[in-house]
Amino acid sequence: MKNYWKIFGVLLAILLLLVIASSGCISNSGTVSAGSSGGSYSTPVPTSQPSTLTLYVGDAMEMTGYAGHIIWSVDQVIRGNQANSIVASGNMFNSKPDSGYEYLLYKISVTNLDSKKYSVYSYCWPAYADGVETSNEFVVLPDTYLSLASGDILSGATTSGWIVVQVPTGSSVRIYYDPLFGDLYESGYFII
Predict the structure, then answer these.
(1) I need a surface site. Which of 45, 97, 185, 186 has the fewest CB within 10 A?
(2) What is the CATH number of the domain that holds 81?
(3) Secondary structure element (H or E) that encloses residue 168, with its range
(4) Up-side HSE of residue 20: CA atoms within 13 Å toward CB?
(5) What is the C-alpha separation between 92 and 165, in angstroms, rounded?
(6) What is d(CA 141, CA 181) in angstroms, rounded to the nearest whole number?
(7) Domain annotation covers residue 94
């Protein structure tokens, strides 16, 4: 019976710590800054309540958090008939977009400013069309449109590549960064 109460006490303590951590009492803080050729700005960002930055194609967002220190940007965007043609020319087995939808291609660049390697995964940069998250399309692009590859980049290195999604024709689109481990990076988006 003594062991029962010890186990119960340990489980209760763990549960209490989880509740405190999820309520934001235990948090890391970092910095998010963004800028384009017109200048830059910086905003302190606590992990529990990140502020949101709105950026546009060509701007760069610098982010520091638990997972690392990166600069990322949406460099180019292609959608509609041009995007549909690019996907169709990539491989004869690529499908046409669904009825009422169009392909959207966006090029992401990531620079690792941290002293350790940084892991890049294409599905961490989702597109939201009219507020609804899209899924990456598994298509083969022409050689001139290299897909954003998953893998590690070393300190000081940069990688870039294209991501392909389907969005409703003419929809409003935002690109977010949503890391695997819920770091403070969820604090900005690019308007397409």
Answers:
(1) 186
(2) 2.60.40.1240
(3) strand 158-168
(4) 8
(5) 18
(6) 29
(7) yes
> Number of C-alpha atoms within 13 angstroms, CB side, residue 18?
6
Give the integer Cα–Cα distance in Å for 46 and 31.
Answer: 8
| Position 148 in a domain | yes
Residue 192: both structure tokens together: 């397409």
- Copy the structure tokens of residue 119: 């892991």
Contact (CB, 8 A) for 186 and 133: no
- Work out whether strand 188-191 and strand 53-56 pair parallel, antiparallel, or are unpaired: parallel
**Which pTM was predicted?**
0.70
Whether the CB-CB separation of 159 and 120 falls below 8 Å is answered with: yes
Encoded tokens for 89: 């020319």
Asked whether residue 9 is assigned to any structural domain, the reply reads no
- Would you write out the chain's pLDDT as a tens digit for each of its 192 residues? 556 556 655 555 565 444 433 333 222 333 334 444 333 333 333 344 445 667 778 888 887 777 778 888 999 999 999 999 999 999 999 999 999 999 999 999 999 999 999 888 888 888 999 989 888 899 999 999 999 999 999 999 999 999 999 999 999 998 888 776 655 554 566 676
Cα separation of 71 and 172, whole Å?
24
Report pLDDT for 48: 42
Domain count, the chain: 1
Residue 16 lies in a domain: no
